[in-house]
Design goal:
Distance between the termini: 32 Å
Shape: globular
Order of helices and strands: EEEHEHHEEHEHEHEEHEHEHHH
Structural class: alpha/beta
Number of strands: 12
Strand content: 5-15%
Amino acid sequence: MTTGFFWDERCFWHSGGNYAGLLQVGGLIQPGGGLPENPETKRRLVNLMRVTGLWDDLATQQARAATEEDLLRIHPREYIESFKAKSAEGGGELGLRTPFGPDGFDIACVSAGLAKAALFATLKGEVDNAYALSRPPGHHCLPDFPNGFCLLANIAIAIEAAQTNKLTDRVAVIDWDVHHGNGTEAIFYDRDDVLTISLHQERNYPLDSGDFADRGSDGGDGFNLNIPLPPGTGHAGYVEAFERLVIPSLHAFQPDAIIVACGYDASLVDPLSRMITGGDTFRAMTDMTMEAAAELCDGRLMMAHEGGYSEVHVPFLGHAVLESMSGSDIHAPDPFQAKFEGQQPGDRFNRYVSTLIAEMEDTLGL
């Protein structure tokens, strides 16, 4: 396998400002370690791959920033202009929990450009599959309102550019970030040429979105699938949801390309979730997605990095994903493997999760 790995040092320079966790410093909130969304999770992934040698098994490359034309297919001009102006002033915040520093607009364009280039390379057959180490992330960004650390809708920008250039017609997006992919959902909610699937912890973020009943509107009715899972769901629940809901939905849709919004914040040690997954889980989901891509769309698969806030765990989860994507035999053992195995839910909880999945399966008629 030839796996393209698209990255840019500038993405590590994106700044979130003066925060302590999710709270802005001031009043009774004393300075802390900054936003959970920080460069270390991504930088450590790169460093780990260089140390293990997996880096040499990838087709590493950079990419041009997304153009204004690319952005305007998704975002209104007023939003782009306000983002540019605030960035030129040294940064600030335009939406909900989306602070950025100097050059924030330019770096966000680089991030979106990585996703675009990774998708184009995959669709053109220049690589077998591709991974974009995008930062800032994008799956929460609405056309005119950024939120949840996301400033531009990276994946949506890439899809629109590819469709405009007649590289693809029908795209499926699997979002396994632990938070609902509300931005991607909203952008394609009334369309039947993009299937959006979000597998997430129920009522985590955003609090008021991600319900199973939200299936799309107008021409897009039936082309949005939310799979909300209860806090505490572990490896078995994720694998079962994939086998019974995600994969059959892909086969029903018959995409000519698959994109994964690849967040790692379902990790059992992530500070922003309460799920219990590990390297085995992400490797299993990657393998199942690759198998579906091989059967449905000649293996055309692109992943765009989204969330994941454990500096020590994300690099190993990303390494597991890229091991599978590239077919490399270089392995980086999950340092939390024993904890992962010891904290898996018991049979009673797994039966409860199975019941929820079965109810969704019956409703969908899969």
